[in-house]
Structure formats: structure tokens, C-alpha cells
Amino acid sequence: MNPVSDSITFIGGGNMARSLIGGLITAGKALANIRVAEPVEAVRQTLAADFSVQVFAQGQDAVKDSAIWLLAVKPQVMKSLCQSLAGQAQAQKPLLVSVAAGITSEQISSWLGGGLAVVRTMPNTPALLGAGVTGLYANHQVTPSQKQAAQALLQGAGATVWIDDENLMDAVTAVSGSGPAYVFLLAEAMQAAGEAEGLSAEAARSLTIQTLLGAAKMLTHDDTPAAELRRRVTSPGGTTQAAIESFEADDFRAIVARAIHAARQRGIELAKANA
What would the pLDDT profile of 144-201 be if each residue is shown by its tens digit? Predict the structure, then answer.
């Protein structure tokens, strides 16, 4: 069975799939070549209404003749899903792209019968706005053209970064996959602190959000390191220096390092739990 060279099947129609489908459509992908397998009828209907793509209740029906399978299901159901599609995977030899945290390319290939091309990815939630970043790892079966196809698919969600060592994908998860939550926690703390200093909730929220947005834009404006940007805004003896010294006295860097290490270790544990 020869798969249709430019067809893509999304197995799982959740938010990440929606963001990638939107990116493909914006890039000019033919709607007839995009399929989605989603067991929840209401979600299927919404996808069909919003994007005019083909929708299926069963993965076995959706993947027929498809060249790329994007696995967008929860890690805990990945094994059973793959095993149910193993026969078709061995017959079609598709490119498999996974967005599941903590599931290795070896596990996916093995559950599908072995010897398959797998690109493991870790997007983050800003991908829903096309402003995310995705770490990608390709196993040895992935060809250069398949690697390009996977990158084109994920670029609809934002920037992409290739990782050569799959063991580092858990570090990608810890830094960027989970990273938006760290920023949200910082925003939550900054807003609460502003209110504690007497600002209204509305003023504290606006000041916090625009400050984080502006700082992020400065970081992406050029190649100036974060440390240099921090130095420029920290006048000796000024208010910023007082705040930075307070952060440093509480070992802020070590707090961040421990948090990211904890997230990475959890990713390793998830892979073992789903073995």
C-alpha cells in the first residue's frame, strides 16, 4: 500500500491539533489532504465546521493511505492506540509525528511493529496562537525529506528547534513545554504583589502583562543576551537593583534550576511508566 504523498492524518483533535491544522491551512495545505480521527462526536463536528477537513471516529479509517500520522493523544493511551494501528503502520510505513510528552520514539516505533520513521516533538501552549516553540527529534529511520515535512508541519505553531540527542527531549519539555506555566506563575505573583502595594487589580494586571510582553519582545528583537538586557535596566543604587538583590538573596537562580530539573525528572518517570 502506497500512502498518498501529501496527506496528513491527525489522531486526536484537541487544541494542539487545531493549532497545527490552522497553520497548515494558512500555509495553503489542501483541505482534502487533511484528516482528523477524534472519538468525541461534538469535537469532530466542530473541527469539520471550523476547518472543512475530513473527520473520522476511528483512527483505522482516518489513516488509510496517509503519508504522515500526527499522534496527538494523551501519553497514557498512546500504547493502546499504536497497537491498534500496528498492522496499517507496517503496511503503509508512514512518517509518525508525536506531540506526547514522555513517550520515546523507540516506544512508538515498537508499539507500531518496529522499523518506522518517528519524529518526537514537544510544542508548548503558545502554539495555539502561532507563537510557540517546538523541540523536535528524528530517529534514524527519518529521511531528510521527512524531516523537512515534520518541520513544515510544526512551523505552523511557531519556531522549531532540532535536538540531536533524544535524551535531551525531557530537558526541552522542562524548559519550553512546561515553561509557559512558569511565566504565568510569575505574572500571578507580580500582579498580587502590585495589589499588595496598593494598585487596583486592573492596574496591576495591565502593568504586569504589558511588562512581560515588552520584555519578551526585547529578548527577541536581536541577539542581545538576557544578562546584558538586565544589566542595562539595572541602574546602580536604583529600584531595579534593590529588587534584583532581593531575588538573588533568595537564591532565585537555584529555585529556577531546581524547578526545571524536577520537570525533566518527571518526564523521565512518565516514559518509564508508559513503557
Answer: 999 999 999 998 889 999 999 999 999 999 999 999 999 999 999 999 999 999 999 9
Identity of the amino acid at 205: R
**Full-prediction pTM beyond 0.85?**
yes
pLDDT tens across 100-125, in order?
Answer: 888 999 999 999 999 999 999 999 98
HEC string of the chain equals: CCCEEEEEEEECCCHHHHHHHHHHHHCCCCHHHEEEECCCHHHHHHHHHHHCCEEECCHHHHCCCEEEEEECCCHHHHHHHHHHHHHHHHHHCCEEEECCCCCCHHHHHHHCCCCCEEEEEECCHHHHHCCEEEEEEECCCCCHHHHHHHHHHHHHHEEEEECCCHHHHHHHHHHHHCHHHHHHHHHHHHHHHHHHCCCCHHHHHHHHHHHHHHHHHHHHHCCCCHHHHHHHHCCCCCHHHHHHHHHHHCCHHHHHHHHHHHHHHHHHHHHHHCC
Cα–Cα dist 101/123, whole Å: 9
Q: Which residue in 206, 210, 202, 153 sits closest to 26, CA to CA?
A: 153
